[in-house]
Specification:
230 residues, Rossmann fold, 44% helix, 17% strand, globular, HAD_hydro_PyrdxlP_Pase-like, hydrolase, HAD-like_hydrolase_phosphatase
């Protein structure tokens, strides 16, 4: 019997609360503490508001004149989750495609990720505009015609570029921006709100706390596959 050709693995990794230990959008807004932010944030988490609407409303609470303070706080506040460089090394060694797919914002994602060897064309996030009176978020990666969730940075749209017949699509995430992508993924590494959502929807998931957990699972499954093919 001929063996089927294994699919190529492709990883779609969230940034806020995943690559980083903290949710940077919430950390920024909480730090500057504009009136009314808590209700907006809760409406997004509970899906009463779309991500695009909620994030827009959160940042409009901040004056654009605060650009330097906002950017400085966002970049210096970041804490990278343990094992991230090891995951990148593993993906490179195993020729696994690695994409950052984030509902976060360019003004902190690009500076933080510049310390890692990730091609900029494999980093997808939202944009920002500080030229007006209030901070405006821009949306260069909107939903395609198969998604109507107003994701902002639409992870399913990016994932659909990779044919599931050819690619094993793996998502690593933690929260509301990962919910729709998890429905398309072959494998979900989850924590926090994403784990709760996977349980609610009956989606299979692998819990993680650090990227060492993710690498260990990928190594185990790769070894088992090799043993079966020997």
């Amino acid at each position: 019997m001929s063996q089927s050709v294994p699919r190529e693995k492709v990883v779609f990794c969230d940034f806020d609360g995943t690559i980083t230990e903290n949710d940077n959008i919430i950390a920024i807004i909480k730090h500057f503490n504009p009136d009314g932010w808590e209700k907006i944030a809760n409406d997004v988490i509970t899906e009463r508001k779309s991500i695009r609407q909620g994030v827009s409303e959160l940042f409009r609470l901040l004056p654009a004149a605060m650009q330097k303070e906002v950017v400085d706080y966002a970049v210096t506040n970041v804490r990278i989750r343990s094992g991230f460089q090891e995951l990148l090394n593993y993906c490179k060694q195993q020729q696994i495609l690695f994409y950052v797919t984030s509902g976060g914002i360019d003004f902190f994602i690009y500076p933080v990720l510049s310390a890692f060897d990730i091609p900029e064309e494999r980093i997808f996030c939202n944009g920002s505009d500080f030229t007006g009176e209030r901070v405006e978020i821009t949306w260069p990666h909107p939903c395609d015609d198969q998604c109507s969730n107003h994701c902002g940075m639409c992870k399913p749209t990016i994932m659909r570029r990779f044919d599931p017949a050819q690619y094993e699509r793996i998502i690593i995430g933690d929260s509301v921006t990962d919910f729709e992508g998890a429905k398309l993924a072959d494998l979900v590494f989850s924590r926090s709100h994403l784990t709760e959502k996977c349980k609610e929807l009956g989606l299979p998931y692998i819990p993680y706390e650090t990227f060492h957990d993710v690498v260990a699972h990928l190594q185990r499954t790769s070894s088992l596959l090799e043993e079966r093919n020997d």
